[in-house]
């Protein structure tokens, strides 16, 4: 049932990545759940109502086409219940996932927004909080289709490319404004 109130209802789907990572003995590893991510940014509740699903908790270099199908299925089976969707994802393969979801969920009038971060949400100098806030703002608007929201940019899912591995300006839009 679609949300009829003015306040949008958004589903946060966690897949892992640096945004959800913590320092472990083996280095950074995705450890945080979607609920733990939201706890870092209570202001999101002023933007929209949020439900959470922890679908995966992987480093994005381990994401496969089978995981893309899981993400698409997760969105499709809940599509009628939400006004928008935010997926947290690692940056290494986020552009590939965005492109795949663009084709798996074609013509969506609802926003499907992927975001991540170059530094974990628990770090002092992180881009995680800004990227998540921006993602929820976009998911609460009438922004159709799949996009990446990163470093104050909104990039269509089929046009995004990771062009920098260390900079907060990690993604560029290819042949499209």
Helix/strand layout:
Blueprint (H helix, E strand, L loop, with lengths): L8 E8 L4 E4 L2 E4 L3 H6 L9 E10 L6 H14 L5 E5 L5 H11 L6 E5 L12 H12 L5 E6 L2 E4 L3 E3 L8 E3 L4
Parallel strand pairs: 1-4, 1-5, 5-6, 6-7
Antiparallel strand pairs: 2-3, 7-8, 9-10
Helix pairs in contact: 2-3
Q: Looking at the structure, what is the overall shape?
A: globular
* Strand ordering within the main sheet: 4-1-5-6-7-8
Whole-number mean pLDDT = 91
Return residue spans where pLDDT drops below 50 for at least 5 consecutive residues.
none
Helix content: 10-25%
- Order of H and E elements: EEEHEHEHEHEEEE
Q: Which structural category fits the helices and strands?
A: alpha/beta
**Proportion of residues in β-strands:** 25-35%
CA-atom Rg in angstroms: 15 Å
Kindly, what is the distance between the CA atoms of the first and last residues, rounded to a whole number of angstroms? 35 Å
Task: State the major sheet.
Answer: 6 strands, mixed
In total, the number of strands is 10
DSSP summary: helix tally: 4
């Amino acid at each position: 049932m679609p949300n009829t109130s003015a306040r949008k209802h958004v589903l946060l789907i966690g897949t892992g990545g640096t945004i959800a990572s913590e320092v472990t003995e083996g280095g950074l590893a995705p450890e945080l759940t979607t609920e733990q991510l939201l706890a870092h940014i209570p202001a999101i509740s002023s933007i929209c109502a949020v439900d959470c699903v922890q679908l995966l908790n992987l480093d994005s270099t381990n994401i496969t086409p089978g995981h893309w199908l899981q993400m698409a299925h997760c969105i499709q089976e809940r599509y009628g219940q939400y006004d928008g969707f935010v997926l947290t994802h690692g940056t290494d393969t986020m552009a590939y996932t965005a492109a795949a979801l663009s084709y798996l969920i074609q013509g969506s009038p609802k926003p499907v927004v992927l975001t991540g971060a170059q530094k974990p949400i628990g770090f002092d100098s992180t881009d995680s909080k800004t990227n998540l806030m921006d993602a929820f703002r976009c998911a609460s608007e009438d922004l159709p289709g799949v996009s990446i929201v990163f470093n104050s940019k909104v990039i269509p899912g089929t046009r995004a490319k990771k062009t920098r591995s260390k900079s907060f300006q990690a993604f560029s839009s290819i042949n499209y404004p």
